Fold this protein.
Amino acid sequence: QVHLVESGGGLVQVGDSLTISCAASGDTTCISAITWYQQTPGRERELVASLSSNNLTYVVDSVKGRFTVVRDNVKNTDYLTISVLKPEDTAVYYCAADVKCGPSRGLAWGQGTQVTVSS
């Protein structure tokens, strides 16, 4: 199975930067991509960025230039860095693994981490 654990959220100030981590364990060789989602109150989760196993990066236009995704293959950990934080970045951020084999086939979700941007 694939298990994801997120960390790194918190209370930050407008203009700061923040990095959220998503550590994968289990059948990590079955992961084809890690995708990041943002969920604000009253709204569904929205995809903001992804990084495939062959290092293809996708960032939605609305946050391009401020959201960056990278991976540490040794630690099996993905990182989402948000720069120049804005109040509208306040949300719960989830990572999800697209799992292509094994008992976790499908999407495996992290527990989510809250980011609150204070002005």
